[in-house]
Amino acid sequence: MTSADQSTPTQPPAKRARRADAERNRAAIIEAAGVVFAERGGTVDVREIARRSGVGMGTLYRHFPTKDDLLATVLEREFTCWLTAAHQAAEATEDPWQALTGFFEQTLTHQARNRAMVESYAATGAPSRACAQYRDAFIDELRTRCLNAGLLRAGVTTADLVLLSTSLSQIVQATDDSHPGQWRRLLRISLDGLRARNTEPLPESDPGPESVRHADAAAND
To answer: Residue spans with biased composition (Basic and acidic residues) (predicted)?
Structure first.
């Protein structure tokens, strides 16, 4: 037997073409779903996603058997991209307070206009446990930087900052049509309350839901 006979046969061109088509279809579905979920939220009919992506319903369901599967994939991608960009921006900012305020600005201008993301943020805190841990650890870095610099009010926890970003995101979505830009006033008021010059003791915090406890745990890890 020659060496040519012993070599592994190459993959047939038709099979490679089918695989490439499947990858393109999956990418098109995810891209379209990201836009549709951002516009309409998680309750949107998947037929609209199939229409915008240019694939049939059968193709969509082969890649994502349920809408929840597709929503989780899209939200994890969006969440990770958002946090990565926010983390990079914070690391490039020398002033701790500017890094913290920049995070809130970036959150409210980017994430809060994604309806499905805000829904996920309000319901579970994040698309997945891994996403929540990544976010909480990052927010705790910002909190610690400000605290060490003497800029943050005593007693402010990571969970406080997580809940603040969640609530302000919902406010942006609720007021964007009727009072666009109103969130900037509310953000300024909220951030002013976080400054170290406010020395009145804060009320004791309620342990709250599991997502909030995760934030506290991240701060203690």
So the answer is: 211-221
